[in-house]
Amino acid sequence: MMMSEEQLANHDADEFWSYKNGGGLIDSGYSSLEDEIDSKIQREPINYQLQFLYRLQSIASLEFEEHFKICPEKLNPVQCPTNVYYFKVGRLVKQKIQKLNPNYDRQDLNTELVNKTLLSFQSFSDAVKPFNVALQTFSEGGDDRQVVDGMRVAFEIFLKRKLKNEKSLENQKSDLGTLLKNKGTSPEIMNMFDKLIVGYTAYQNEYVKHNDSIKRDEVELLINLTLTFISFIVNK
Asked: Structure pTM?
């Protein structure tokens, strides 16, 4: 069985953290940690980099929780070098994740779904660009019409590459249905996808192309819908 990019990144992150801790990482501070992380991941694909960082973040968080249970400085955490170290590591790793995924840890989006989709989406490189631009525009409070249209473009390109055709989004019903049926998707879910895509394209045509009055909460819904569509289809 082939090892996935996610499994490899997790394995490498575990080894990296184990090696660093074994080398007295906390005692020596974390001043070299950023350079060592960069050296480890900078030539790797984006999905590998993100998963490596997510894994480091998870390991450090769990170790910090275990340490804090027995920490003698619970009432004054900054007096404990280990507490300070874990805080700085967590902040550093989070900053690196946010550079790769600007919408990480947002409260108005399903960030777990954003992260999952980014990890699985990287092989569709020409769809990733409008996807990331739309998320960045949303994050910066930009034009909501551009956000929604960017999501449509990303989804449309993704389906063209996945289904190996050049059809527009509204004309993918038959080919997408065939893919889902061949992969054993239930008729109820297939029917749900049909209705969602019809509603999705109708909203796009009405509000993005012909109307300025798009509501912010509806933009959030459409982003999350697009993420759900892609996440469900990408590995079929």
From this structure: 0.58
